Amino acid sequence: MAFKGTLKEFKVPDILQLISMQKKTGILTFNSNEGFITIIFEDGFIVGVDAFPKKLEMRVGNVLVKQEIISKEMLQRALAIQKRTGQKVGEILSAMGLIDEKTIPEALKIQANQIVLSLFTWKKGEYNFKVMEFIEDELKTLKPMSADNLIMEGVQMLDEWPLIKKVIPADDYVFEPSFLGNKKIEVVSENYDDIESTDENVLYLSDTEVSLLKYVNGKNSVRELVEMGLFTEYKIYKNLYNLVNKKLIHKKEKAENIESPETRLEEQFLRDIQKKMDFSFRALLFILVLLFVMTFFTPFSPLAKGNILFQKQLYQKIFQIDR
Predict the structure, then answer these.
(1) Omega cis (within 30) before 53
(2) Where exactly are the structural domains of the chain?
(3) What is the pTM for the complete model shown?
(4) What is the CATH number assigned to the segment(s) 169-256?
(5) What pLDDT is stored for residue 275 in this prediction?
(6) Of 142, 97, 118, nearest to 36 (Cα)?
(7) For 214-241, what is each residue's pLDDT tens digit?
(8) How confident is the model at residue 298 (pLDDT cuts 50, 70, 90)?
(9) What are the C-alpha distances in Å from 106 to residues 18, 114, 123, 145, 278?
(10) Which end of the chain is more exposed for a tag (fewer CB within 10 A), N or C?
């Protein structure tokens, strides 16, 4: 049994919800100009996700590099071993003692969520679900995940995205911490929207906001924060949006608009040199003009007829010449 169609006829949330509610087992594929995505279900739960051209294992490997858990050289070495053995990259890195056993499952989950959520932005494409009796173990790359949670997050993302983009319109934005003053921070659960603070000096932050705040240092751009793979792209944007509204962070001015003390000193030094050069040039020009005038237009000019040096009597007297 299989069912297929286009995203114009059936939307992504509806497709996922149908498979989840009916507790189906099988392989769901999406195909469009955006790429090719595969979601593997077992009894209505997601147990595997992959994408082309950005495959899940490569995403996870790059995330580990961005988080400085492994180096690029280590990742390339693991990928080379994978070509020979067919093992998963995570298994290779774990066997090499480069990562903790818990690192890969968490990174896989975040990147798998990111791939599925990206489907919610697709406007066109085709889908195909092939029902199967069972899923082979080698296809199960994830601990079973509820599709319902992803559906809720995806729908919420679509609703909030336009508002978030007004505050963070580009992924090259760089944020830095703001001065807190006497305000205190209190960490609460993710669903803290109903909490109303009676004290203006207390700020409520979720665990996610606190974790993200560690990397908001005036250096990392939004794009770099997303590439770190700490959370899905939507969660990164949403929590940055929340932190801006709470005035805990603010957008950093672009580097070209900020003059460092060293730059100002260098520019002042160059201006001083320029002034000295201008003065020397004007002085030299004045001397040359003066010499020119004295040479051609004054009584003291050697070429002038009235110049005393050309008076014959004085000339003979000086040199005692008697003709």
Answers:
(1) yes
(2) 2-164, 169-256, 273-319
(3) 0.72
(4) 1.10.10
(5) 64
(6) 118
(7) 999 999 999 999 999 999 999 999 999 9
(8) low
(9) 26, 13, 29, 12, 66
(10) C
